[in-house]
Amino acid sequence: MPKLRIRREPRYADKIRSYSVILDGDQLGKIKEGQVVEFDVSTGLHQVWLTIDWARSNKLSLEFDRDIDLACRSNVKALFAIVALFQPSSWIRLWQEECDVSK
Question: What is d(CA 7, CA 11) in angstroms, rounded to the nearest whole number?
Fold first, then answer.
């Protein structure tokens, strides 16, 4: 069974808050700042995103035929915070990494 690994980079915004990890609309778990989490995922095409309150990350559509490593961080900077309020899907940045974060 493929694994989904997510690494959360430290950032000032949301420092003490956890993000919810969502797979196809269902919550898999949570990730805290500086943490790496890992989940078993069934083979096939899935959508992955993160949420915090009313805001979320971009959605990634991924084919799970092997382990996949993602990274995330808050996308909020002082001046960007006002813009982020009107674009809740840009609050968190989520991207695929080419390296294995489990090492």
Answer: 13
Other C-beta atoms closer than 10 Å to the C-beta of 99 total: 9
pLDDT of residue 14: 82
- CATH match for 3-97 among 2.60.40, 1.10.8, 3.40.1350, 1.20.120: 2.60.40
The DSSP string of 45-103 is EEEEEEEETTEEB--EEEEESS-EEEEEEE---TTHHHHHHH-GGGSEEEEEESS-TT-
What pTM value is reported for the model?
0.85
DSSP code of residue 6: E
Contact 52, 84 (CB under 8 A): no
Cα distance between residue 39 and residue 67, in whole Å? 10
What is the per-residue pLDDT for 103?
46
Structure-token match 């949570």, residue found: 30
Cα 54 → chain centroid: 15
Please tell me the total number of residues recorded for the chain in this structure. 103
